[in-house]
Amino acid sequence: MTDYRIEKDSLGEMQVPADALxxxxxxxxxxxxxxxxxxxxxxxxxAMAMIKRxxxxxxxxxxxxxxxxxxxxxxxxxxxxxxxxxxxxxxWNNQFVVDPFQAGAGTSQNMNTxxxxxxxxxxxxxYAISDAKKPVHPxxxxxxxxxxxxxxxxAIRLGVLWRLDEMIDVLKGLQTSLEDKAREFDGIxxxxxxxxxxxxxxxxxxxxxxxxxxxxxxxxKIMMAAEGMRRLGIGGTAAGTGLxxxxxxxxxxxxxxxxxxxxxxxxxxxxxxxxxxxxxxVFFSSAIRTLAxxxxxxxxxxxxxxxxxxxxxxxxxLPTVQPGSSIMPGKVNPVLAEMLDMAMFHVLGNDLTVxxxxxxxxxxxxxxMPIIAHNLxxxxxxxxxxxxxxxxxxxVGLVANEQKTTQWLANNPILVTALNPIIGYLKGAEVxxxxxxxxxxxxxxxxxxxxxxREDAVAALDAYRMTEGGITE
Length: 473
Hints:
Strand order of the largest sheet: 1-2
Oligomer: single chain
Number of strands: 8
Number of domains: 3
Structural class: mainly alpha
Strand content: 5-15%
CATH architecture of the largest domain: Up-down Bundle
């Protein structure tokens, strides 16, 4: 490192890039954890900066900032708030350089935030970041009344809530598109299938209404799980006792964070639980997991329903968005459904990591919080992108192939099910077997066997009527 400055922390001196806003502890983390080359999600940066912004305001209102050098305590607080505001806007995202796989609890991430904000605050006050007498200290001022142990879990909660509305809006858009298709396809009667075998008729619109309702239910589960994420444990400091924080700090912080973010937030009713347990994060992750498995199921149904086209079901046609083969001309694949499967497989892996990390806490702290944060933010990021693309490029433009649904339905021997109340199960099985053996329609076979008149059989085997339920008479 040829262009550097010397910074000090409790372990001694460290060379830091000359123009970096971060300091010695961040540089140590960069050197210690060259794991993926990746960085934390913007949600994490935003949430941590928001906590520092609120803490400076609260601590200043409580009169806790002391004058230093020629700078008043109030000036220090104002500079920290201004610097934090800049971070909140994303201005200094390139200064957050710690790998997602880092030291336990997230001390490196917390200190990356403290150092960036303190050095930027010093610049705001007119000091060079290389100045040995710069007045704003990352621990004493930016981290005042805080610990990694209460800031990181609070940031996880805030970061999730920051993108919650965005994710819900995307999912509601997908739900709406599926509902639109349910209405569009409501008059199309097709062969139902259970065990991947022919079953009684359903309407294609009914099939799509089931997909839409599943997404609606998943949204409800996610919103319910998100309520627990609104409970903040900021003010517990190192172990839940609130040591080094003003008695009013916790309640003031929750109120200030709510005012700053516009997000509904609640005080923790037990700061020890808020620090020990990642249960709320695990529960939220599990709600996204449930959504992911539903999306996988729907994507796989789309792949089946569009299969072929000449040798598969071919009941729906997905939009053609790209060639499907480098060797087979004219081949088109269900690429958006395939993408959604792979994206949701990844989400399921994220959820497993969150669950394993959630149970790995000991005593007063869960030190696995950095990977919980990374995986929760990644889950939301992937869901937002994948669900949006699937909706826009697949669901909105898909069409029904009514010719093929009619063809499959006409050849379905399970239509005989509607005759059970009239001729009984055993005779119905006889009719179905003969239909499959001879290839004759159910109507012809039941009439040939003398079980019904053609007029009665036609009326009883009205496929649309079968989709309405009830008993055939």
